[in-house]
Amino acid sequence: MRKNIVFIAMCLVAGICFSQNQRIKIDFAGVKGQYGAVSVSPMDGGVTMSGNRIVLAPKKEEVTYTISGYFDGQIVNKTKNTVIKLKGAYLENTSGEAALYGEAKTEVSTSKGTVNYIVSQGDSHPKAAAVQCKKNIVFGGSGTLYVVGPYHGAKGDDVKIKGSGVFYFQGTEKGSGINCRSLVVEKDKNFTAYFLNSKNGVKADNTISIASGTFCFYDNGTALKTDTSQDDPKEKHGILISGGMIRTHGNKNLYATEKDSFKARVKIVEE
Question: Quick one: which of 210, 242, 236 has its CA closest to 223?
Answer without folding.
Answer: 210
